Amino acid sequence: MGDGLDLERLTTAIEDFTTIFIRLPAVQRFNFSTLSVLHTLARRGPLRLTDLLKTEQLKQPALTSLVAKLEQDGLVRRRPDPRDGRAMLLSLTRQGREIVRSRHAHRVAKLSQLVAQLTDEEREVLAGSAQVLTRITEIAATNDAEGNRRSADRADT
Amino acid sequence: MGDGLDLERLTTAIEDFTTIFIRLPAVQRFNFSTLSVLHTLARRGPLRLTDLLKTEQLKQPALTSLVAKLEQDGLVRRRPDPRDGRAMLLSLTRQGREIVRSRHAHRVAKLSQLVAQLTDEEREVLAGSAQVLTRITEIAATNDAEGNRRSADRADT
DNA sequence: CAAACTATATCAATCTTCGATGTAGTCGAC
DNA sequence: GTCGACTACATCGAAGATTGATATAGTTTG
């Protein structure tokens, strides 16, 4: 209580930070949607189209055609789901993973250069925040999953 | 020294966190580029097209037409720069600011709900990190500005 | 005041995205 | 087992966004 956590300020700080950290110039010819799809597949392993759809800000036909193009370009692999004849399992090829890794590496390098200009104290704060950010992301995922269960059940008050 | 700052891990944590925090479903019909332009204008006040261009991942013609549409929709104001007859000064209208504020408010609400599920200790770490994030963003801006000066000078080794 | 430069606008071609709809696979009740 | 309802993904045509090339107009410098 009263720990001085100013959400307003923190949100603004994150918004501004992502502008310089996440929106790197697209070194290759990829747009936001494409990069987001690649990142999600890199992080969450093989996914069905429908599951991938949930995290992306696209409608299904757009995602289908984006994935088709990525397959043609050799970045994504598509194979039938052995458990469900309707579904496709999507994953990255080695080449696809390489793109995600390269962007990630750019970010690490950029962050490294910035962190070098901080005080020791500031660096300590950052070190702790990685863990907290991960926790928050997990909590959000859990909340979403529960939300889905509830609305599927139609059993809540 | 040896403060356990793992940049690899921190970068991944930030990447994953922004997926749930920044890429909110576009409640309105705006795409990424549009939202980014609105955010930048909200934060950095009146800007010339060329200056706005620097922070956006778009080419100049695309930005011109995007801004034209935003003006038609009443979200952006365009007026001639009194200091330079070639340039236009872009800023948000009240309505444009309202959109940015609304997305920001959504984020604050979402963060608030997540933070409520953290321990006191975790909240304390977050409280400190707002300041550090802001510092990092400032440093990055300074670095960029210096980089531009240097390459304009063509005077470095 | 002419040449070189800068800021923005326009154009046609290409790529993205969308809503609507189609096809094929799955599931559960009987 | 087979009928009906549902789900996963694909296809299609239209609308919108983005691009490179280029045009126009204003500015600066010698």
From TrEMBL, chains A, B:
Q: Which InterPro entries does this entry report, sorted A to Z?
A: HTH-type_Bedaq_tolerance, HTH_MarR-typ, Tscrpt_reg_MarR-type_CS, WH-like_DNA-bd_sf, WH_DNA-bd_sf
Q: Does the keyword Transcription apply?
A: yes
Signal sequence span is none
Keyword Ribonucleoprotein attributed: no
Q: Which residues cross the membrane?
A: none
Which PROSITE patterns did the record assign?
HTH_MARR_1, HTH_MARR_2
Q: Which SMART domains does this one have?
A: HTH_MARR
Q: Which domain of life is it from?
A: Bacteria
Protein name (record)? DNA-binding MarR family transcriptional regulator
